[in-house]
């Protein structure tokens, strides 16, 4: 069985491919099938994951697997959330964006902690809240050509 991964992330391809290989499921990145990335206009990880899986499945005519994940930092009111990948802009490659995103998150947490310490309401102890673990949503979809039992 062949499954399209609605991602161009090489790390995800390696990890998911290794998990599904023992079940004789071949995982193919969407880019290998000429499928472009889907828009992610939704407010939740789950909605974006479903949009990506549906897009890849329709375009490739295969079952698809997608996920959406990001950082939700309590100290920043849940930011960057679904905007984690492009929090500090869309310019550059993945590694460059990741570095800028991390820098922006740390800067914003520090600024918030500084404001909290200088606030008249601040107690004698100031601490920087830790970010929540990354939230993740995954979605799978089947194309109309696959039997429901597969």
Structure description:
The protein has helices spanning 10-20, 45-60, 94-118, and strands spanning 2-5, 26-29, 64-70, 135-141. The protein has 150 residues and is an alpha/beta fold. The chain has one domain (2-141): Maf protein. The chain is elongated and about 60 Å long. It starts with a strand and ends in a 9-residue tail after the last strand. The relative contact order is 0.18.
Beta-strand percentage range = 5-15%
Mean pLDDT: 83
Gross morphology is elongated
Q: What's the count of strands?
A: 4
Distance between the termini: 9 Å
Per CATH, the architecture is Alpha-Beta Complex
- The rounded Rg comes to 19 Å
Total domains? 1
Give the SSE order as H and E letters.
EHEHEHE
Give me the secondary-structure category: alpha/beta
Provide a count of the helices.
Answer: 3
